[in-house]
């Protein structure tokens, strides 16, 4: 059969985001993939010119719905470092707990979507039901289910009462039990393994050279995790990056699944080690200088470049989100796969296109 | 699929995990950031909320002649971050833990109140 070019996306039933890939196909085998981005550019970085650096927190939170807390945490860390503000310890522990809760709900959302991509509706519902518990924790403790708005320059806005902490712990116990119940399904089930094992393989060398990030990188056997930089309260929290070596879709989903369970443990550690103290340090003056900060988001490394010149408005806010780093590895995974596997492979990097284009 | 069977059977036999939504509603959480309100009798029209609001949807004006002030908020531009609630020095702003009712027309929340003279004098 002759070569055909099949457009995949930007609107596609399995893709929640407008990613457009042109697939060069011969006999249902993909030979090449050419991406096209730029359908949802929102110009958030430009807003730095008309919103002062406190208001920018609310803007960067809206870069991505499901990592909102971690975006604002990264931005605040940057500003704090420029201005030399020392964040109170309690605020750091609170930030850590909330960011791990965010990671959990993001991973559970993705695991559900992933199950949906290969047609396993019951599993999809199961994951999203567990996620609902985490969303309730977010809503009860921060005031909103998705955009938490708890981080401010210098600390956090909300506190956790002891009753809330014990309620969170009991909810997490239930969630952990429920996650473990479906462990066998996502890891050993015949259908799941058949659709994911050996599909979209990215070798360790490729992952390293193409600059993959997050679970895509760790699924290929590279133990890299920005939380090892010991930002916030991670210096006192015991943690090892989760690594799988197969480099296929199965490995990437397993990394995410195991990270969900790991996050339960990290939230427990953060709540247990939380000292008493202030919630926020006073913040005076305007930022002057430039900085690069990095944090680990559910999808991988997120990088902020912030430049201020002593004015209320920042000169530049540059955000590099993990999906941006994961697009070249995606293009290396697609050749020689079957056309039917394309949705599964694309979803396996957890694309978040609106983040990439901001 | 066999791995999933016990879970599926358990789900069949246990009670539903969804609610009959409009009939049965969950109690809102105490901290939930819902609809924004201004207790206009407390408001001193200091414009703090207007300055701090990240979506710039609040406009506060003062009319010296009639001695009244107006507080206008565009609820459709509001992002429910509650920054204004934190910034308000008189705690006249508050958020109810309920969702804003849907509306067919784009309307503004407009409230008019008296400018409080004694407080202004005390400030000077
Ligand atoms: S900050 Fe409070 S007192 Fe000041 S104008 Fe706004 S609502 Fe009124
Ligand atoms: S809640 Fe936020 S967006 Fe809405 S009026 Fe207050 S400050 Fe502005």
Show the helix and strand layout.
The complex is a heterodimer of chains A (358) and B (124).
Chain A: E1 4-8, E2 20-26, E3 29-36, H1 55-61, H2 68-83, H3 89-117, H4 121-142, E4 151-152, E5 155-156, H5 162-181, H6 183-188, H7 190-196, H8 204-209, H9 215-218, H10 249-272, E6 288-297, E7 300-309, E8 314-320, H11 322-333, H12 342-348, H13 353-357
Antiparallel strand pairs in A: 1-2, 2-3, 4-5, 6-7, 7-8
Helix pairs in contact in A: 1-2, 2-3, 3-4, 3-10, 3-12, 4-5, 5-10
Chain B: H1 5-13, E1 35-38, H2 48-52, E2 58-63, E3 68-73, H3 83-87, E4 93-96, E5 109-114, H4 117-123
Antiparallel strand pairs in B: 1-4, 2-3, 3-5
Bound molecules: iron/sulfur cluster (2 copies).
Describe the protein's architecture and organization.
The complex is a heterodimer of chains A (358) and B (124). In chain A, helix 3 packs antiparallel against helix 4 (121-142) and helix 3 runs antiparallel to helix 10 (249-272). In chain A, the strands form three sheets. A three-stranded antiparallel sheet of chain A has the order 1-2-3, with no helix packed on it. In chain A, strands 6-7-8 form a three-stranded antiparallel sheet. In chain A, strands 4-5 form a two-stranded antiparallel ribbon. By secondary structure, chain A is of the alpha+beta class. Chain A contains 13 helices and eight strands. In chain A, strand 4 (151-152) and strand 5 form a beta hairpin. Chain B is of the alpha+beta class and 124 residues long. Helices cover 21% and strands 21% of the residues of chain B. Chain B contains four helices and five strands, in the order αβαββαββα. A three-stranded antiparallel sheet of chain B has the order 2-3-5. Chain B starts with a helix and ends with a helix. The structure holds iron/sulfur cluster (SF4) (2 copies). One iron/sulfur cluster (SF4) binds at residues 38, 43-49, 60, 71, 87-90, 92-93 of chain B. Residues 36, 53-55, 57-58, 73, 78-84 of chain B line the site of one iron/sulfur cluster (SF4).
